[in-house]
Amino acid sequence: MKWFIEEHLLKQSFLSIMSDVQKKLDIKMVLFDVDGVMTDGSIYMSEHGEHLKAFNVKDGFAIELLRSHGLLTGVISGKASGALSLRCEQLGFDIVITGCKNKLPKLKDICKKYSVAFEQIAFCGDDVRDLPIFQYVGLSVAPADAHTLVLDKANWITRSVGGKGMIREFADKLLCLQNNISSEEVYMPLISKIIEDDVTGIEQ
To answer: What pTM, to 2 d.p., does this model score?
Structure first.
């Protein structure tokens, strides 16, 4: 069963699909690839080999949003860089694995360490290296511009492309569906913290 979250779906079809998604959701952890998911996949390199990455602040806020609802979050990335390490530190991910060429063994280690079943994990990926993980997790998520093979295997395809708010889009809808609450209710834990000036750890 594929769950396509697309603008052109008729309202009745959309509600039917969302109802089916909701019945199947028991997500405890959300993991992300980086290049093509948290970024648009571009790498800016100098003659010294150093590179920069551009991250979307909307996606950054989504990590704290997931955390505010008790979900663990993490990164499993095939590349490693100082920019990525700094961003992961800023966002306070529970799990940070970089420079990982084979992600599936790391996923299995994570499940054991955190006592989380494969079915309780959502993974956001965009390229063929992510396909082995897609076969195991409970919810496989891809941005709209993911590789064709990834789009074919993904349970959930966002309207947004990688690096352009796809994580925020997914987090908003996931929390609404899994908790059967409105968007306003999804954001109340963070809004309350901001009102109380308890903003430690809230990054963008």
So the answer is: 0.84
